[in-house]
Amino acid sequence: MAEDNNRAAIVVFSGEMDKVFAALIIATGCAAAGMDTVLFFTFWGLNAIKKGTPIKAQSFLGKMMGIMNRGGINRLNTSRFSFGGIGRVLFSKMMRDKKVASLEELLQMAIDLDVHLLACKMSMDVLEISRDDLIPEVEGVVGVASFVKEAANSKIQLFI
Amino acid sequence: MEIQVDMVQDSIGQMCPMPIAFMAKNVKKLEAGQVLEIRADDEGAHADIPAWCEQTGNGFLGEEPAEGYFRYYVRKKVE
Lengths: 160, 79
Description:
The complex is a heterodimer of chains A (about 160) and B (about 80). Chain A has about 160 residues and is of the alpha/beta class. Chain A has 6 helices and 5 strands; from the N terminus they run βαβαααβαβαβ. Chain A has helices spanning about 15-30, 60-70, 85-95, 105-110, 120-125, 145-150, and strands at about 5-10, 35-40, 115-120, 140, 155-160. In chain A, strand 3, helix 5 (about 120-125) and strand 4 (about 140) form a beta-alpha-beta unit. In chain A, helix 1 runs parallel beside helix 4 (about 105-110). Chain B has 2 helices and 4 strands. Chain B has a 4-stranded mixed β-sheet with strand order 1-2-4-3, with helices on one face. Chain B is of the alpha+beta class. The interface of A and B includes residues 25, 32, 99, 101 and 112 of A.
């Protein structure tokens, strides 16, 4: 659909609710404008595309990380006023009251608009996250070269 | 405004980016030259709908105020 150069490449490094929110809104907007849009999830950002079930890590540290950093789009905390998770509940309520779409709805909308979801292999290895720990809509597990290729052909490149 | 409408989208109560996201999905379903009417009350959408049309090359035919919301008319471009 998208002609060459009509692309957007967005790195989602952060795993905080508000930053993932921004990333998903921009991605949805790009896709709605007919741009071929790719979201690269890396490091903490991977939490947004995790199923939210406990991961099957091998090492002791990996298991601890899996517990402390469980993830799942509905389990992301806010970057400010988090108060150990209370912030998430309060912000979700404020968003609902203002009829703003939830993160889950936004992610679904992005998927419906053919936004491509890619996961970074290296950070998955470090955090001992396997493909099965990620939602099935993730199209691939890739490295930096895939991002560079995509970003080099994109009008919009963002790091969130 | 005398405009032949082919599809109506109710985005009243929706906030950014949902009116735009649904507009993109709906315009995709239309044939070239057909018109989508969007009903929205979000102030952001007021600027965003013409901006989206300019960006994508679809035709923005105009807007008219209704009770508590606006009707926006978008004509799908001929490729």
